[in-house]
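#structure-requests
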Amino acid sequence: MEDLRAERYNEANKPAWDDFVSRLEAHSILFYRDFMEYHSDRFVDYSLMIFQEKKLIAIFPANIDTNNNIHSHQGLSYGGIQFNSKTLFETRLKVYREVLLFLFKNTISTVHLKSIPRCYSADSSNDLIFQWLKGVCFRTDIYSYIPKAHYKNPNRNRTRHVKNALAANIKIRKTDAYSEFWNKILIPNLKQRFGAYPVHTIEEIERLAAQLQNQICFYGAYQKNILRAGVVLFIHRDVVHAQYSAGDNNRDDGSLDLLLDFVIKKYNPEKVFSFGTSSEEFGSRLNKGLLYWKESFRSCNDTQPFYSIETKNYYLLENRLR
């Protein structure tokens, strides 16, 4: 096969890595190094860069666990090997082979790949490559989104709540009130309803928002200057993702419904609007209430599969092309 070279990422490669991320087929701010490294104390980075001669042609955001297994970075919602949009299938095949061979030579037996949702990229050729590599799908999550320029209005129940919010004179503002949202609404909401906490601490989200000012923003629903609901958006090139959304305990007046209707109508004409997953317990159960709430905004559903691949299977990609 054509001469390729995989090597581990190091800090000196940050400009080249970030420049490549800006041109990815499946662009996501999660792959920028400033975002990946906010939780570097929790994960041992094992990201790879793949070169063809001196040209960077693919990246693999990854970490290594205590059992010497490699993962699509566990601090990110999705991942896998990332290419730019002009990469031919033959080149993709060679990159996968090179990555697995590199890991195999470094005594790593298994790699766990977390697929990127299809709403970020129309290319699904990875499915065929995983099949050829005898990959085992060990988990599948449901993933909800609204295709670009598809949103008009939510369903009847949600529309009624939006009208209630308008009648209650609730106003939508773009602000920097992350701390107020975290402490007064988001943390109490997640703890009460799901027994969970935000993935990001308030210090982490404020630092990320400062570093990625054009890609992370907060919108609040206010009634007489009192914050009633909030949403944190991650803004990628082709997708806007609602990373966090929550309202206070008074749900009848529709403050959160109005807020989501507002941001969807603002961004969906130009971008996909992503709600993310409604799967729980490693993909074995669905949160039906959460899924219905997303579907009430006319979202459609897709799957996000997770695969385990043995690195010794790199040879299975040889001679696949005539």
